[in-house]
Amino acid sequence: MILTTTDVIQGAVIQSYLGIVTAEVVYGSNFLRDFLASIRDIVGGRTGSYERLFEQGQRKALEELQLRAQRLGADAVIGIEIDTGTINVDQSGVLLLITATGTAVKMR
């Protein structure tokens, strides 16, 4: 299955638009990861543990997006957009949210 951020696929003809598909991945906060990130905030530098978490989350969101598009009979998902954010749970932490959205299409 083709997954792309573009709204066209070079050399392909879109036969029908099957609808918008979305996928969400939510991760809980982790005390150790948060603590190490706070140290990085003070001394500077990149926070590798969060970078890996977001990379994994984006990959999982795209995998789920593909599965949901396949259920619709799609050959591709076009116009994909990935967003990240947080959900404040309470004073004890936040949830990390990664969403992927696109349009499932059937090609000729």
Keyword list:
single chain; alpha+beta; 108 residues; four-stranded mixed sheet
Please describe what this structure looks like.
The structure is a single chain. This protein has helices at residues 31-43, 48-71, and strands at 2-3, 14-28, 76-90, 93-107. With 108 residues, it is of the alpha+beta class. Strands 1-3-4-2 form a four-stranded mixed β-sheet, with helices on one face. The longest helix has 24 residues, at 48-71. It is elongated. 17% of the residues are buried. The mean pLDDT is 86.
Range of helix content: 25-40%
Beta-strand share of residues: 35-45%
Cα-atom radius of gyration: 17 Å
Main beta-sheet strand count, sense and barrel state = 4 strands, mixed
Distance N terminus to C terminus? 13 Å
Give the SSE string.
EEHHEE
Total beta strands: 4
How many helix segments?
Answer: 2
Structural class: alpha+beta
Mean pLDDT: 86
Low-confidence stretches: none
* Oligomeric state as shown: single chain
Shape: elongated
Spatial order of the strands forming the largest sheet:
1-3-4-2
Helices and strands in order, then pairings?
Blueprint: E1 2-3, E2 14-28, H1 31-43, H2 48-71, E3 76-90, E4 93-107
Parallel strand pairs: 1-3
Antiparallel strand pairs: 2-4, 3-4
What would a concise description of this structure say?
This protein is α+β, with helices and mostly antiparallel strands and 108 residues long.
